[in-house]
Design a protein that fits this description.
Keywords: ATP-binding, Ligase, Nucleotide-binding, Protein biosynthesis, Transferase
Helix content: 25-40%
Protein name: Aspartyl/glutamyl-tRNA(Asn/Gln) amidotransferase subunit B
GO molecular function, one term: ATP binding
Catalytic activity: L-glutamyl-tRNA(Gln) + L-glutamine + ATP + H2O = L-glutaminyl-tRNA(Gln) + L-glutamate + ADP + phosphate + H(+); L-aspartyl-tRNA(Asn) + L-glutamine + ATP + H2O = L-asparaginyl-tRNA(Asn) + L-glutamate + ADP + phosphate + 2 H(+)
Number of helices: 16
Number of strands: 14
Strand content: 15-25%
Largest sheet: 9 strands, mixed
Radius of gyration: 30 Å
Mean pLDDT: 93
Organism: Streptomyces misionensis
Strand order of the largest sheet: 2-5-6-9-1-10-11-12-13
Low-confidence stretches: none
Bound molecules: adenosine-5'-diphosphate, magnesium ion, zinc ion
């Protein structure tokens, strides 16, 4: 099935319309047990081995709220500058789907645990944009369906489906923004920056690893356009389960161009869910959107209300870690770097490795240099993340130390790093095994210097005649002869000494 979608160019779309966005992010919490039962949440277990009467929805089973789940929700709410409800309830969201054995999802409806907050996000150029948060509420994940036999893994064309309920009941926090207006052409960038900032906040709080590629964090992108200058929102589409930062940006961009095409040709946007396709960067129609009343929400009668005491909330607030934006702002000032430098560090995933390397004793400049230079290049080449490279921050700090002591120059240090990455051992072991040490003692260098002078009599004459700059060629020859291990500064001194000239 191929459908082509008419698009208006991005520039033309933005010339006539203002985009309005709403982002709904689901985060799977990293609790040991599920939200309403004691089943393990460990990944990778045999299908349906982590289930019980509660998460299978067997008649008469009674759920109990996971206190760590509530605490995580409060942490997230506070980090997002939200108010925390003094009293709130869970609600049943009723619908049938095979991966949801209870025939309702236990969620929160009009009484979310956290509401009315904001998150400041930073754009590529360092500018800050405030995204208002409508609510953050607790709910549970569904099971997982696998459709077998079809071409695309979709249910269409499948011969049968497999159901795994291990995921059913894993705690989720859903974080919903207020309509984001005023971002204009930067709307897709704001969407991406928001999801990235939220991911960093979640990780800093330690409530989830928030790995999008593993489905621990996913984003629904709501988007509508209104004619420039209008004050009434247009009809939105909702692109579901977008699972990478890049896709969030692309999905928003695509929907802007698609909506503009529909609207400018006199059509109307239907409120529907849509699927995003990584390969084409486009979205296709999903299902026509249910209204809230279709779910017949009602308060969950089997669970007691959640009433976090003010003392407890304040204890949690006092124990919050330094949040990512504050940390970045502090480091940027401490290191004296620009917003663009910081952005490059973030994009490379190098912030934590650099900080850890500094904590292990390296100075900030060399920690940044190695992670953003040699190591970033190496990670790029092998397609791995920086923090998955076979070198620790402690080892990088040791390399920096050897350079600072003059035992290694940059060229040798690169070889040491290469050796560590290749599994040849610690930096010191690689230095020993490969015999990589700056040679600076005169007896060892003397012979090489004599040979260089003898081999280049013309150059030597020029230097004797006062052209000190020509010494570079002889230094180069010595470096070559010593496979880069000579102390270049000392070599130059020796050459000048032997030729009887003084520098400058
Ligand atoms: P639903 O559960 O039906 O998706 P929610 O209210 O939970 O509804 O979420 C809708 C999201 O879309 C929110 O982030 C909201 O701010 C945003 N939103 C609401 N109306 C519009 C609109 N017209 N255009 C774009 N986004 C919108
Ligand atoms: Mg929604
Ligand atoms: Zn269970």
């Amino acid at each position: 099935m191929t459908t082509t979608t008419d698009l208006v160019s991005y520039e033309d779309a933005l010339a006539s319309y203002d985009p309005v966005m709403g982002l709904e992010v689901h985060v799977e919490l990293g609790t040991k047990t599920k939200m309403f039962c004691g089943c393990s949440t460990e990944l990778g277990a045999e299908p349906n081995s982590q289930t019980c009467p509660v998460c299978l929805g067997l008649p008469g089973a009674l759920p109990v709220v996971n206190a760590t789940g509530v605490e995580s929700a409060v942490k997230i709410g506070l980090a997002l500058n939200c108010s925390i409800a003094e009293w709130c309830r869970f609600a049943r969201k009723n619908y049938f789907y095979p991966d949801m054995p209870k025939n309702f999802q236990t969620s929160q409806y009009d009484e979310p645990i956290a509401f009315d907050g904001y998150l400041d996000v930073q754009l590529e150029d360092g500018e800050t944009f405030r995204v208002e948060i409508e609510r953050a509420h607790m709910e549970e994940d569904t099971g997982k369906s696998t459709h077998v036999g079809g071409a695309t893994g979709r249910i269409h064309g499948a011969s049968h489906s497999l159901l795994d309920y291990n995921r059913a009941g894993i705690p989720l926090i859903e974080i919903v923004t207020k309509p984001i207006v005023g971002a204009g052409e930067r709307a897709p960038e704001v969407a991406k920056a928001y999801v990235r900032e939220l991911r960093e906040v979640i990780r800093a709080l330690g409530v989830s690893e928030a790995r999008m590629e593993m489905g621990q964090m996913r984003c629904d992108v709501n988007l509508s356009l209104m004619p420039k200058g209008a004050d009434k929102f247009g009809t939105r589409s909702e692109t579901k389960n977008v699972n990478s930062l890049r896709s969030v940006e692309r999905a928003a961009r695509f929907e802007i161009m698609r909506h503009a095409a529909v609207l400018s040709s006199g059509g109307t946007i239907v409120q529907e869910t849509r699927h995003f396709h990584e390969d084409t960067g486009s979205t296709t129609s999903g299902r026509v959107k249910e209204e809230a009343e279709d779910y017949r929400y009602f308060p969950e009668p089997d669970l007691v209300p959640v009433a976090p005491s003010r003392e407890w909330v304040e204890q949690i607030r006092a124990a919050l870690p330094e949040l990512p934006l504050a940390r970045r702002t502090r480091l940027l000032a401490e290191w004296g770097i620009s917003a663009t430098d910081m952005q490059a560090i973030l994009n490379a995933g190098a912030l934590d490795p650099i900080v850890a390397t500094i904590e292990a004793g390296a100075d900030a400049a060399s920690a940044r240099k190695w992670w953003m230079g040699e190591l970033a290049r190496s990670a790029n080449e092998s397609g791995t993340a920086l923090d998955e490279l076979a070198i620790t921050p402690q080892q990088v700090a040791r390399v920096a130390e050897l350079v600072a002591k003059g035992d290694l120059n940059d060229k040798l240090a690169r070889q040491v790093i290469e050796g560590v990455l290749a599994g040849e051992g610690t930096p010191d072991e690689v230095v020993d095994k490969r015999g990589l040490k700056v040679v600076s003692d005169d007896s060892a260098l003397g012979t090489a210097v004599d040979e260089a002078i003898a081999g280049n009599p013309g150059v030597a004459d020029k230097i004797r005649g006062g052209k000190v700059a020509a010494a570079g060629a002889l230094v180069g020859a010595v470096m070559k002869a010593t496979r880069g291990q000579a102390d270049a500064a000392r070599v130059k001194e020796l050459i000048l000494e032997k030729l009887g000239v003084s520098e400058g």
